[in-house]
Fold:
Amino acid sequence: MNETIRVLKERRSIRQYAARPIPREILEDIVDCARLAPSANNVQPWVFVVVTNEEGKKELARLATWGKFIADAAACVAVFCEKDNNHAVEDGSAATENIILAAKAYGIGSCWVAGYRRPYSDEVRRLLGVPEKYELISLVPLGYSDKTPNPPKKPLSEVLKWEKYE
Structure:
């Protein structure tokens, strides 16, 4: 199986992390993959804030309703896009997916934590010192893990339709 296809098919949301730091060069490469994501009209409306310090991760975990496990991650990438961009959600989502897949390729677990228009979005933006012209799209905790969840996925035959929905 092609390595890219393997990464796509084996990726799972990881919420338990080992107490092991991720080298800065790997974090930079993961974010480099994010910045290369497709964006409408190639506007590239994003900015990424990587949080590795314990206090910052704990505060993000406290703020994020469904992201308490952020505190245990080695790092968390906050993905922001310009508010006035008509495709901020799509562009930020493409960048987020690139983060998740690049992390998997490095053997690093991740989990997409929603950020777009959540009650805590502005608090996260302020905490990280991001200008008001940006809005939070997602938080992506990253960490090594020996856990490999395997939740059931719908079979292809249930979700694939040819030509028309029938």
Notes: Helices lie at 3-10, 24-35, 54-63, 88-105, 121-127, 156-159. The two ends are 31 Å apart (CA to CA). The longest helix spans residues 88-105. The CA atoms of residues 54 and 71 lie 7 Å apart.
